[in-house]
Amino acid sequence: MGLLEFVPAGMLVGLAYGAFGAGGSAFATPVLALLGLPGVLAVATPLPAMLPASLAGASSYRRSRDLDWRTVRLTLAGAVPATLVGGTLARAVGGHVLLLLSGLLLAGLGVRMLWPTAKRDGGAADEQSPPWLVTAGGASIGFLAGLLANGGGFLLVPFFAVGLGMSMRRAAGTSLVTAAALALPTTLVHAFAGNIDWAAAAAFAVGLVPAAAVGGRLSARVDGATARVAFGALLVAFALWFLIRVTG
């Protein structure tokens, strides 16, 4: 397993992450597992790159004002403490189980993104979503983000788009900022647990961070409904392929 292989892998993951605001760690875990990292290391090694990648991807959304700061604050209020709890339980659950859970969650969320749903206004969630709902959703996502060692973007985007009625682009931008904040406590928990291969993480970041910035700019050129369908289809296809590999 050569470290150079992690650079193009990071580029591919970064493009999708910046464009859709989700899938950074969720896609990275199966990719790193396929490159040879064992279960727990494949789950946690992408984390150090997620903070800079999230900020790089969010820059274009911030310039176009496609961010919902109220939702960011309310989500983090529940997500940060729950992330610490989930992170402490990750090693006890076991690497193979974590990989299976990652694949199943990807498939389920992909199907949900493809399912028709009535949106309220396709914009912000400021005046429509009760604070308790946003914070409770953040706590649930934070726990799974800590357990599966990811920034939570692949859970945040469906929650914001489907649960809170945001447009796809606004959900993506809000997710990137939220995931950036979640990446720090999640990384610290897994670093202290010895779950990160730092050499692989550095090589992965070389490709991931600049590609996330490019993906964020590309997203402005894609229709929101098209992006949602494309993201859902990508999640389902990749998850099914990965689950076949893991269980085969």
Strand content is under 5%
Distance between the termini: 21 Å
The domain tally reads: 1
Poorly predicted regions are none
The number of helical runs is: 11
What's the mean pLDDT score? Answer: 81
Radius of gyration: 16 Å
Backbone structural class? mainly alpha
Approximately how much helix is present in the residues?
A: over 70%
Describe the largest sheet: none
Shape: globular
> What's the β-strand tally?
0
N-to-C SSE string, H for helix and E for strand: HHHHHHHHHHH
Description:
- The protein is mainly alpha-helical and 248 residues long.
- The chain has one domain.
- It has helices at residues 6-20, 24-34, 39-44, 47-63, 69-93, 95-114, 131-147, 153-163, 168-192, 198-219, 224-247.
- Helix 6 packs antiparallel against helix 11 (224-247) and helix 8 (153-163) runs antiparallel to helix 9 (168-192).
- The two termini are 21 Å apart.
- The mean pLDDT is 81.
Output the keywords.
mainly alpha; 11 helices; 78% helix; single chain
Write a short abstract of this structure:
The protein is mostly helical and 248 residues long.
List the helices and strands and how they pair.
Blueprint: H1 6-20, H2 24-34, H3 39-44, H4 47-63, H5 69-93, H6 95-114, H7 131-147, H8 153-163, H9 168-192, H10 198-219, H11 224-247
Helix pairs in contact: 1-2, 1-4, 1-10, 4-9, 4-10, 5-7, 5-9, 6-8, 6-11, 8-9
